[in-house]
């Protein structure tokens, strides 16, 4: 039964639903302990659009109440919405519109998020009909057709349409959805809106059964509890100092020009590249002749850079992952393997080191990325109503459960509001900003407010020590200086065997720096090849470093071997045993069938026999070992990354509840979350209390998941982002 609550009684008379009063709707809903919820809006951006209607449904799906919020205030339902359990699909969107009215639901169940928990690790790529039928995959999907209407296969989808069909075999008609903005609230829209709060309860029941089977109920609960937090994060936004940002852009453009000039000078001086050098001999009528050598290369064109690399002696052939065919590319990883051919070109084009290193050099690639990614787009993305950038975050944006940020799709509503081309107003990636102080300082607190950045100290290393039961790491953090780089250096370099860890940084800084690529590659489950690529040494030498690392960190080696065997057998990795978060090797059964068809010895023989060849057998063998290698690596690093992501989410759930409970909603703002860092903006009068609360809650959450050693959180207060 569909009911309508509206102030336009005559306008909305229809046999398809019954018009009832506000009081009658609340009376009906008072008998529900939980409710289905959805909303229809005038656009997607909550800061430039408004609610058109909201829909309530009982959990059984027999009653739907559509409220015309253009004539009936949503505030009439505030107490009910906040006091009962809400079940919805992609609630992050709906909650932000409710936040505009200070309606703050915290007891929510999101069918989309729970489905993502159930299928964490599944890729968003096309599965062909042949592949699907052969392997009988059971996942929510959407059908994909080409421009001529030919059916191509299925893609993973977490839409309500896909999920409803998966569990209920109901094909929900969504054709009205794209017409709501121009149609407004008419009979067809009312019926459509009611349909979106009809099946959520049944879907929830099926999902709960699946969660019990996969033992991830606690994971689903935590992720649902985090939905209001990520909604608040997007709703609050982040303030940008435009003048500072423009000054930064000038510096960035200058750095790019210098990088291009350095490359051009390199070309002019290199005898092998003289085909790209020319002198303008015609001169100019007014300025005369300029015989300065010029370079005819567009460094932004990968095709032109390929020609440069080939003339210098680099092998530019790489395998296309989609087609399997060889192609020319200036892929950084591939060219850096060829160290010694022309290291100066590699340095000038790709840069050197990491931003935190003393000898870091951005090179052309790094400078060009900064200019293209962190420029005018951020200014154009400022919402004039709030004066802040409101980007998008994906709650389960990585296989490990980490968040991701940004979107390829533009903010069309904001572009229309600002009268700009839609491609100007994007959702910038706020998690991948350059770490330099100049860039970070551009993000500021409002007048009268302060900014606090709080991050965990060496969270992955500490979690690794605890999870891998690696006593040397635990001892270093409990009783030593906590210098992991020095500890790794001691393990892999024989000459440091008798040197105390605390003295390595001062006495042997070069070996400590040299240990970093070994540490990072092994920390992420890499092989000797990874060390070779990062250090530019021989494979034999790289293998010695890998063996030394395994011998020095026996707990890590044991965990890696155990995890590798588990994922090869079961097809998933337990990211966190406490919550039950798992990431799935989605086509594991294909690999398992292939593996079981022959012995391990057979595969090893064929790998050696067909190495370097391009026939069908070689390709099959290559895919087989690449898949196994990938999941061997993930079996190690996914656990620490996954647990770290859970800890951060857990802490921010607690803090958000504290903010709401203490009446600070909208006054204390969540500005950004990265992998191990939380950034909040708060009133100056709370300077003595709020940073301490943030630090305590982050450390308390860490203790829930890591009791072997503490994971301290470090809070820094300023008027801008200083971390």
Write the layout of secondary structure elements.
Elements: E1 2-5, E2 18-20, H1 22-29, E3 34-41, E4 51-58, E5 64-68, H2 78-83, E6 85-88, H3 91-99, E7 108-110, H4 111-118, H5 129-135, E8 141-145, E9 151-156, H6 160-168, H7 180-183, H8 187-195, H9 200-214, H10 217-236, E10 239-240, H11 242-269, E11 277-278, E12 294-295, H12 302-312, E13 317-319, E14 326-328, H13 332-336, H14 343-350, H15 363-373, H16 376-380, E15 382-383, E16 388-389, E17 393-394, E18 404-405, H17 412-418, H18 437-440, E19 443-444, E20 449-456, H19 459-467, H20 471-479, H21 484-492, H22 501-507, H23 509-523, H24 528-535, H25 539-552, H26 554-570, E21 572-576, E22 581-584, H27 588-596, H28 600-609, H29 616-661, E23 669-673, E24 677-683, H30 690-705, E25 713-718
Parallel strand pairs: 1-2, 1-5, 3-6, 6-7
Antiparallel strand pairs: 3-4, 4-5, 8-9, 10-19, 11-12, 13-14, 15-16, 17-18, 20-24, 20-25, 21-22, 23-24
Question: Which properties best describe this structure?
Answer:
single chain, 4 domains, 723 residues, alpha+beta, 30 helices, Alpha-Beta Plaits, Nucleotidyltransferase, domain 5, four-stranded antiparallel beta sheet
Please explain how this structure is put together:
By secondary structure, the chain is of the alpha+beta class. It folds into 4 domains: 2-119 and 158-214, Nucleotidyltransferase, domain 5, CATH 3.30.420; 243-372, no CATH class; 430-469 and 556-723, Alpha-Beta Plaits, CATH 3.30.70; 471-552, no CATH class. Helices cover 47% and strands 14% of the residues. It has 30 helices and 25 strands. A hairpin with a 4-residue loop joins β21 (572-576) and β22 (581-584). α11 runs antiparallel to α14 (343-350). The longest helix has 46 residues, at 616-661. The two termini are 55 Å apart.
